[in-house]
Amino acid sequence: MTDYRTDIRALIDPEQSDLLPDGGRLQDISIILTDRPGDPRGLPPAAVTLLACQARELAFELLVLAEHADRQRPGTSR
To answer: Residue 26, SS3?
Structure first.
C-alpha cells in the first residue's frame, strides 16, 4: 500500500549525532513527511534518518528525476 503525504522537510537534529573516536561527530539527517494540518486523512508523520552519504545519494537521485520530469514538460528547457 502507498501512502501519500503533502509536505516534506529535511533537517539536522543536533541531538541525533554520535561522537567519533577522533572527537568529531557523525551527524544524521532526518527526512520527515507530513500532511498539512487539518488534513482529513490524518496520517501520522513518516520519518527516516540518513547518514550524510545516504542523503547525498538521495539528493542526487532526486536531481536526476527532476531533470527527467522537466524534460517531459513542453516548453521547459535547461
So the answer is: strand
